[in-house]
Amino acid sequence: MKLLAGIAIMAWTLPVFGNSLATPPDLPPTASVRQWIEQDPAVQEARTAQRAAGHTAAMIAASPNEWTASLAAQRRSFQGGGPTSNEWHVQLERPIRINGKAGLDQQLGEVERVIAQARVGEAIQESARALLDLWIDGLTALQAQKLLKEQETFAQANLRAVEKRKKAGDASALDISVAATDFADAQRQANTAASTLEKVRAKLRIRYPGAQLPAKLLSDPIPLSDMESQWQERVLEAADPLHIAQAQLHKAKLTASRASADRVPDPTVGVFAASEAFRNERIVGISISIPFGGTYRNERMRQSLQEVEVARAAVGRQRRDLQSGVAETYANATGNFARWQLAKQAAAATAESARLIQRAYSLGEADMQSLLLVRRQFLDASRAALEARAEALRANYRLLIDAHQIWDLAPE
Q1: CA torsion sign, 286 to 292 to 296 to 299?
Q2: Where are the alpha helices (DSSP H) in 208-294?
Q3: Taking the C-alpha atoms of 344, 349, 355 and 356 in order, what is their torsion angle to the nearest 10 degrees?
Q4: How big is the chain by its Cα radius of gyration, in Å?
């Protein structure tokens, strides 16, 4: 029973740094994390899209307006006979952006770059969240495996002790059956815990090549020192999804301004040269053509104005979603911390009960069923404490990730 008591009162002294920029001791170092995250296909996809956005921005700034060359040849003949005149006409023309459209296109191109960079940041943050979940799941599974392996060892020792007592005439066949059943159940649970650990390791290894779980126990969570409102402010300031929505709103406004400016059509300006009348006439000139704006351009402008309102609503929705997520994570951190404290106290109490029942059983004052019942109660309390510990730490670290306060998550 010293083993049970030791498990119940075990205290891990590694600190959790709250909102410090230092990496908490439960988590891998920043250099390793950034290397693993950059190998994530989702992040690589966002990086490639960012490079493509650079070309998109250059295209928008340059506009699709290009020089157009035209060449015409003709033969002029006259009634009544006579020689024919070989003539030609060549022209070079291009639409010219007016009414501030070139500047607006330049700004639209820059917005494309901003959105692409924010999407990289969003991919990095989502990858960091996934890494955190796998890491905490792995350390939790590692600790659960240790706990259940110790329970298996205890159940096996208990079975051997009962078999010896049976030979000495101090235990019944029922006691051996109960102890054997308990040992088999302990083996099953230990095997399940080992399988769970291997699954997490496989997921971690596949998504983040090179990542390996350390042989360490989860540290004790500590209560959050800052108010929820402070975490709301930090997370909203760092939230790439909100940055994307805000950039989309800016893009919608610029697009509306561009549609309004486009109500004044762009003229097409050109120069031309021609040869006529048996090459006796040389013609050089300039040309300009201006389309007349109509219903299409007006409706395009009205559509753009409505799209601005859609983008504005999307910013508000994204902000509320983030606020809701922070509130939920904060509640998880505080609630699971309190639950962990209660479960830890329950594990310590049941460990003491198990010690007393073990002593009573050795003196013949308690039966096997009572001993195993108390030990199961201790195991349930220890599992609950481990789960609450893991979830409290997960919520704490999730806040740090969402606020970009660990792992240097800001996109380059």
Answers
A1: positive
A2: 228-238, 240-261
A3: 180
A4: 37
Give the span between the Cα atoms of 159 and 102, in whole angstroms: 85
Task: Give the pairing of strands 281-289 and 68-76.
Answer: unpaired
pTM assigned to the model: 0.84
> What tokens does 4 get?
């049970």
Per-residue pLDDT of the chain (412 residues; tens, 9 = 90+): 333 333 333 322 233 333 345 789 999 999 999 999 999 999 999 999 999 999 999 999 999 899 999 999 998 887 776 788 889 999 999 999 999 999 999 999 999 999 999 999 999 999 999 999 999 999 999 999 999 998 898 888 888 877 877 787 776 788 788 888 888 988 999 999 999 999 999 999 999 998 999 988 899 998 988 899 999 999 999 999 999 999 999 999 999 999 999 999 999 999 999 998 888 889 999 999 999 888 999 999 999 999 999 999 999 999 999 999 999 999 999 999 999 999 889 888 888 887 887 777 766 677 777 878 888 888 888 999 999 999 999 999 999 999 999 998 876 6
Of 409, 412, 410, 403, residue with least CA distance to 17: 403
Partners of 94 in beta bridges: 269
DSSP 321-351: HHHHHHHHHHHHHHHHHHHHHHHHHHHHHHH
**Starting at the edge strand that comes first in sequence, how are the strands of the sheet with 281-289 ordered?**
68-76, 85-95, 268-276, 281-289
Overall residue count recorded for the chain in this entry: 412
Q: CA 326 to CA 228: how far, in whole Å?
A: 8
CB 268 within 8 A of CB 94: yes
- Residue 268's alpha-carbon distances to 66, 272, 314, in angstroms, are 10, 13, 38
Residue type, 101: K
Spatial separation of the C-alpha atoms in residues 183 and 159, rounded to whole Å: 7
State both tokens at 137: 């799941």
CA atoms lying within 13 Å on the CB side of residue 289: 8
Q: Structural domain boundaries of the chain?
A: 2-402
Q: What is the CATH number of domain 2-402?
A: 1.20.1600.10
Handedness of CA 154, 158, 159, 161 (dihedral sign): positive
Buried b / exposed e along 15-28 (16+ C-beta atoms within 10 A): ebebbeeebbebbb
Taking alpha carbons only, the member of 357, 266, 352, 249 closest to residue 305 is 249
